[in-house]
Amino acid sequence: MLDFTILSENFDVFLEGFKNTLYVSFLALIGSFILGTILAIFRIAPIKPLNWIGTIYVEFIRNIPLLIILFFIFTGLPVFEIRLSGFVAGTLALMIYTAAFIAEAIRAGILSVPKGQMEAARSSGLTYTQAMVHVILPQAIKIVIPPLGNQFINLVKNSSVLTIVAAGELMYQGDLISSRTFVTFDVYIFVAVFYLIITLPLSLGVNRLEKRLALSN
Amino acid sequence: MDFIGAYSPDNLMFLVDGFWITLKVAAISIVLSFIIGGILGILRYADIPVVSKIVAGMIEVIRNLPLLLIIFFVYFALPEIGIKFSIEASAIIALTVFESAMLAEIIRSGLNSVPKGQIEAGRSSGLSYIQTLWHIVLPQGIKKMVPPIVSQFISLLKDTSLATVIALPDLMHNAQVLNAQSINYIVPIFILVALMYFVVNYILSIVTRRLELKAS
């Protein structure tokens, strides 16, 4: 049976990790949403060099492991005299990685808005940027929310990788506890439960949204 | 930065060895998880009273856990209850457990895309439920499943790098070994390793897009 005294005795440590996981995930989500939106607009803007930048970023980052980005920031940047803490390096890596996926989700959302909307906005005198911000993006957001939710779930799960650079999130705190108490099995089960507390409700919510969206179409 | 030293023949061979392990572990895991995921996906799809609910619960729990936790669990926690695997076996098992849940969902949604009328038609022409699934639903669903399965394989190739934490001698691990030799190697090695992952995954993602176009 599970040893619940491990949980109660180390509850502060688990909670610390839980908070840090949420904190890292939120920071990375906000950062990657901003960066992802910019990249998505780069990819569809009628300016060729921007298209290239957007496409190269998205295709390259999507096809390499998160771990490479993390190691590059944490151990590669110090070569150029840029030293970041595990927490900052980890959040940056998550942000850079997730932005590529969010960019794709947003681009798909924008492309799903009928072309006539842009033409109508442009012919009523709005500039391209105004049309994008006031007409296209608000309509795209509805379609983008479920995939964004999925990306947030992935972010929370991927944040566990930050344990490698000792960022103090849930997985890291779990490892601390297990190396101090020599109990691994039970500690990992509790760590799993803490992750599920975040990810399961999100996943159910996303499923429900997707179903509702499918019905409304 | 020492590109010439970093890209010495020995180092390149060492990276290729690692990449071979990455590809091998990923390929074995995708085959195993296709089989297990297939069974789980069909069980969830089939709406068998208690069984489908239990399978659905299992899939949801595993899908929502970090893969790293599963890898740690298999390698560090299972020995505590007397189950011990080698590093490579642990990596394959952890990846298979995680990817099976992912593939089960892909397979289920592929099956769901086949109109229900097909089952009714199959049943009323005298086939059993299993026969209907096997001969009517599965062949039609498979077209929808192939593109997401290939893109899941891309994730798997990337995720294999996580097994570095239990010292699986994969591409990521061997890169870290070389990086530890000299600070001047770090950037050149990262560039090369990133390109190796990128080339294979990018080719796979082009394949996915082709298949998606064909399926639609």
UniProtKB/TrEMBL annotation, chain A:
Keywords annotated in UniProt: Amino-acid transport, Cell membrane, Membrane, Transmembrane, Transmembrane helix, Transport
Subcellular location: Cell membrane
Residue stretches making up the ABC transmembrane type-1 domain: 18-206
Transmembrane segment boundaries: 20-42, 63-80, 86-106, 126-145, 187-206
Cellular component annotations (GO), alphabetically ordered: ATP-binding cassette (ABC) transporter complex
Membrane topology: Multi-pass membrane protein
Stored Pfam families: BPD_transp_1 (PF00528)
Family indicated by similarity: Belongs to the binding-protein-dependent transport system permease family.
Name this polypeptide is given: Glutamine ABC transporter permease
From TrEMBL, chain B:
Compartments where found: Cell membrane
Bilayer-crossing regions: 20-43, 55-78, 185-204
Stored NCBIfam families: HEQRo_perm_3TM
Protein name: Glutamine ABC transporter permease
Gene Ontology MF terms in the entry: transmembrane transporter activity
Transmembrane helix among keywords: yes
Lineage start: Bacteria, Bacillati, Bacillota, Bacilli, Bacillales
UniProt KW keywords: Amino-acid transport, Cell membrane, Membrane, Transmembrane, Transmembrane helix, Transport
Organism: Ureibacillus sinduriensis BLB-1 = JCM 15800
Location, primary (coarse class): membrane
GO biological process: amino acid transport
GO cellular component, one term: ATP-binding cassette (ABC) transporter complex
Alphabetized Gene3D superfamilies for the sequence: MetI-like
Family: Belongs to the binding-protein-dependent transport system permease family.
Domain (ABC transmembrane type-1): residue spans on this chain: 19-208
Recorded topology in the membrane: Multi-pass membrane protein
